[in-house]
Amino acid sequence: MKVLHVITSLSVGGAETMLRNVALGLDRQRYQSQVLSLTGKDPIGLELERAGVAVTALHGRAGLLLPGQFASARRALEAWQPDVIHAWMYHANVMAQWLAARQRGRHRPVLITSVRGALNSPRSQKRMLRLVRRVDALLSARAAAIIFNSHVAARQHVELGYAQKGVVVVPNGFDIERFRPRPELRARLRSELQLGARVAVGVVARFDPLKGHELFLRAVAEVTRRRDDCAYVLVGRGCDASNETLRHWIVQLGLKDRVVLLGERSDVSELVSAFDFVVCPSLSESFPNAVGEAMACGRPCIVTDVGDCAYLVGDTGWVVPPQDDAALAGAIERVAALSEQERQVMGARARSRIEAQFALDRILAQYAAIYERALAAA
Fold first, then answer.
1. d(Cα 253, Cα 329) in Å, to the nearest integer?
2. What is the CATH number of the domain that holds 35?
3. Total domain count for the chain?
4. What does the pLDDT look like over 50-68, one tens digit per residue?
5. 134 and 24, same structural domain?
């Protein structure tokens, strides 16, 4: 079965990571993949190419493609002649609809689209994105399946106008060999980060208004009025000293000596071992990889009640209302007050939950079943 994956970008993100997992994790004797990126290749596309998966990058900008880039996309389709087109995210869904419509007769591929985000704070998203989402909704009935990675997101999008027929929910899956507890690294990493004996609280997310960094820092400022034994580590693209907005918030809230900015890191699977627990303060989220990865590494998590975050952590973590810095501050205080042994027990339960319900092999089997059903029906 030849599968053409169409995606908006191949930067580091939840959809991009899951595409990589599907393209490389499914039986490659049965499922042969190629990838079409509407923008660039770096970095996940380069990783795919090193593993033998062909990647075509259209280098679109600001959500727009020129006529020549549409022609390049069609040439890639005609050269590959896929059995299945699997699109990831709104812009890619619309492009995949156009590509599928260009192929006639017996070579017309089965179309599967995907939605990877929730709508907890839609007005915070760019106008162009909201427009593309409307177009995607109008075209959605043409897809053989629409894959959502959270139950909440599926319900929200159906209410917005997406076709209910064909909706399938497949949560993100996690590589439990790569993301695992690494107690042997903890002392070295904490020394490198100069954490000392402080309780280390991690946030792993790119800098984006919907990721809730400002909310988190306001909560942290509240916590520091009552306890001064915590360090707060921000990891992710844009979370570094060059971010003037982030630095302004930190100084304004009096947190200069308490917040560590690490920026984007490729060693998150190891780095999480330095943390005592992880916080996801997002204003909108579907099914966050960063939380599942932290749980797989044996770290307990605090999450806001957006998307399927509460479902993901189950009874292994703490859930607070979104956009409520006081509630988040209270949860951080409660978890920081636990003993290290108590947090380890919660972390072990989190790891067990990932192993039982969200291990990557289980999730890949669900993707394979969707491809097989769609192709058989066609």
1. 14
2. 3.40.50.2000
3. 2
4. 999 999 999 998 778 899 9
5. yes
